[in-house]
Design a protein that fits this description.
By secondary structure, the chain is of the alpha/beta class. It has 11 helices and 19 strands. The protein has an 8-stranded parallel sheet with strand order 9-10-11-12-13-14-15-16. Strands 1-7-3-4-5 form a 5-stranded mixed sheet, with no helix packed on it. The protein has a 4-stranded antiparallel sheet with strand order 8-17-18-19, with helices on one face. Strand 10, helix 3 and strand 11 form a beta-alpha-beta unit. Helix 2 crosses helix 3 and helix 5 packs parallel to helix 6. The radius of gyration is 23 Å and the shape is globular. 48% of the residues are buried.
Length: 437
């Protein structure tokens, strides 16, 4: 938890211009955030179009990591410790739902991969060479990556971790250490990911071991182009998940030629097993961007029905994912960094607000309303301060006190301009503050 002169102590009038500080950040489970800018509703023009967002200053009483109350800032007097938001905009904290911090170069001097992009199997061979050295300091580098995520407003991460014959369970063990060391800073889930293929590297036994030592999802990888047997590969993945009551999160890079059949089989297995419904995710899923209109309607309706989610890094270039259509059909859609910097890619920023902006740019969400909706790809349960009708749905009493402060007038501006994250809270604890960082 960050320390510094952020809290005010004793009796203090919210909205007062007086500055009082005890030069300490009390380790308090109960305090009040004063003068936070919150969204109150949309302002419409004479054509019933959203032209701006109405906001006001509020005070939030936080206790044991939960919002106890939200009230207009009207010079109330408090005896609890106070944190002055100074009119900055409060937004829901962000989630990175696909990130590899177990084998990152982050924390080392800059070094982009010298080789041109190669096949997945080429990259597997490269990994077999470099993983032993990466594992030597993977805990420390994972901790640095968590600090980077915090600085971008992220309080929750779904961490992919290699389970393969080269690293065995060591990558998972080192990740566990990093997450334990940073447990105040990050909430997390772990995917046991067979980066070298379940069948291609004979990793079923290792995945079963990993399933018993603190993971949440069983992963998979390109069951046709890497493993060479789509049904057998997917069956092993699903059977392990069912045997140990885990979710599924598969890396599926395959195009339509082989990827569509894999998606159809995933739908079939999830339909047969209610325990997998709402707990199965397709990461990347590039085949979904290559479907014709009829195919897309059929597949997207089934994904929505079974609540099979898609996790996309929002790629740019030849593949543009159909994210607007996912929303239209009700397919769960989330985003993540993937790689910060490693042998796969040097472009990761860990900034989920930047991902929301990328969506807005790619799909033409450039007005006040659509910009405000773009935020939902980066937050828990697609939460935004206002719903589509302009009704305030966040923050409310009883919700988790995980949020961030930015210098912006509304969420639409925050998405469009991606301002510096000033202060970030995880369950009521400050995990990043720009004045102290």
């Amino acid at each position: 938890m960050v320390t510094g002169s952020l809290f005010l102590s004793g009796s203090y009038l919210a909205n007062s211009k007086e500055k009082k500080s005890n030069n300490q950040l009390p380790n308090s489970n109960e305090f009040v955030i004063i003068n936070a800018l919150l969204e109150e509703g949309f302002v419409y023009n004479d054509k019933a179009q959203v032209k701006s967002t109405k906001t006001g200053l509020y005070n939030l009483h936080i206790k044991n990591g939960v919002i106890e109350s939200v009230a207009l800032a009207n010079n109330q007097q408090y005896t609890l410790p106070l944190f002055d938001a100074k009119g900055m905009l409060l937004l829901p904290a962000l989630r990175d739902m696909h990130i590899h911090i177990d084998k990152t170069f982050y924390g080392e001097p800059w070094s982009a991969e010298a080789l041109d992009r190669r096949t997945v199997k080429d990259m597997i061979n490269l990994e077999r060479e470099i993983l032993p050295n990466l594992l030597l300091h993977s805990t420390e580098k994972a901790e640095k990556a968590i600090e980077l995520m915090n600085s971008k407003g992220t309080y929750f991460a779904r961490c992919q971790t290699n389970i393969d014959p080269t690293s065995g369970l060591k990558s998972l063990e080192n990740l566990h250490k990093a997450l334990e060391n940073k447990k105040e800073n990050i909430q997390s889930e772990i995917v046991a990911f067979p980066q070298h293929g379940i069948l291609y590297s004979q990793s079923e036994g290792l995945l079963r071991e990993a399933a018993q030592i603190g993971i949440d999802f069983i992963g998979g990888l390109d069951p046709t182009t890497v493993d060479g047997n789509m049904k057998k590969s997917l069956d092993i993945m699903f059977n392990i998940a069912l045997d140990y009551n885990k979710g599924v999160d598969i890396h599926l890079h395959e195009g339509k030629t082989t990827g569509l059949a894999a998606i159809e089989y995933i739908i079939e297995r999830v339909r047969e097993n209610k325990a997998l419904q709402g707990k199965t995710y397709i990461s990347h899923g590039f085949a979904l961007a290559q479907l014709n209109t009829t195919e897309a309607k059929t597949i997207f309706e089934q994904l929505a029905e079974l609540q099979i989610g898609v996790i996309s890094t929002v790629p740019i270039g030849k593949t543009i994912m159909p994210i607007p259509e996912f929303y239209e059909y009700g397919v769960p859609i989330m985003t993540g960094t993937d790689s910060i910097i490693d042998h796969w890619s040097p472009f990761g920023s860990c900034d989920m607000l930047e991902k929301a902006k990328l969506c807005a740019e790619l799909y033409g969400w450039s007005n006040e309303f659509t910009l405000s909706r773009a935020l939902r790809i980066a937050t828990k349960d697609k939460i935004t301060p206002l719903n589509s009708n302009g009704e305030k749905i966040w923050p409310l009493k009883g919700q988790e006190a995980s949020f961030l402060l930015v210098k912006a007038s509304c969420s639409a501006e925050a998405v469009a301009r991606t301002p510096q994250r000033e202060t970030v809270f995880n369950k009521g604890k400050i995990i990043f503050n720009n004045d102290i960082a």
